[in-house]
Design brief:
238 residues, alpha/beta, 7-stranded mixed β-sheet, 7 strands, binds iron/sulfur cluster
């Protein structure tokens, strides 16, 4: 089920100004890491969001004309993985991300993940997300996440970017105008739940001036999560 355009979500400031396309597959770090662009909808409005300045991380236009269907995602993946294999390259990672929040399509992603796993038994399958939308838009229970793992999901890159709730509110603006009071805690809750299920979880922070690195480390460690502080390249959070 694709998402209908909704005022609850942010679609990026350039949406009205660019030609909308159907770019489902893109590469940011070479052909061994294939990324899937599954939606432009996002329930956050991060102040550093690259989408407001660039059509697609400088690698492609990722402003979609509509959310691709499960069949379209699978077909784009099959076509590309075949092409990459024909070049003699093994896919090391499939990253489900895009120019939006992929968790909004989590139930669809279970089918996509299952298909990728059948075709690529040893590839890392990662979802890059802000986490909290799982509880708001999918379920309070772990059932769907567990199902995704059983179908082949292996990694979660969990974008937090702030070491406390006040900075999180200012930077990420979860819920856009209707600020989501529990988003910061729920992001951590999502990470802990994923880790308990057996997924490899990394808590991500962009190295912004406002980031208290010491606090970020303590926060990750006190929740039993790995963490990564990444250079602020161009507004990439996931
Ligand atoms: S940086 Fe990511 S999470 Fe933040 S508004 Fe942009 S797409 Fe959404």
């Amino acid at each position: 089920m694709t998402l209908k355009k909704s005022r609850k979500f942010n679609y990026g400031a350039l949406k009205e100004r660019l030609d909308l396309v159907k770019n489902i597959v893109y590469y940011k770090r070479g052909l061994e890491e294939l990324s899937l662009n599954v939606t432009n909808a996002c329930p956050n409005a991060c102040v550093f969001c690259i989408r407001d300045r660039d059509s697609g991380w400088g690698v492609a236009n990722l402003y979609l004309n509509k959310d691709p269907s499960v069949e379209e995602i699978i077909s784009a993946f099959d076509e590309e993985s075949k092409r990459v294999k024909n070049l003699g390259i093994n896919l090391k990672r499939v990253k489900i991300c895009g120019y939006g929040e992929p968790l909004l399509r989590f139930k669809d992603l279970i089918f996509v993940i299952s298909h990728i796993r059948k075709s690529e038994p040893n590839t890392e399958i990662q979802i890059a997300t802000t986490g909290w939308p799982y509880f708001r838009f999918i379920s309070e229970k772990e059932t769907f996440l567990k199902k995704a793992m059983e179908n082949g999901l292996t990694h979660i890159f969990l974008s937090l970017n702030a070491s406390d709730k006040v900075s999180y509110k200012k930077l990420v603006r979860p819920g856009i105008k209707d600020y989501d009071e529990n988003a910061f805690e729920d992001t951590l809750r999502f990470g802990v739940m994923a880790k308990k299920l057996g997924l490899d979880v990394v808590l991500g922070f962009i190295d912004l001036d406002s980031l208290d690195k010491k606090k970020a480390k303590i926060l990750a460690e006190s929740n039993g999560l790995k963490y990564k502080i990444r250079e602020f390249e161009n507004g990439e959070s996931k």
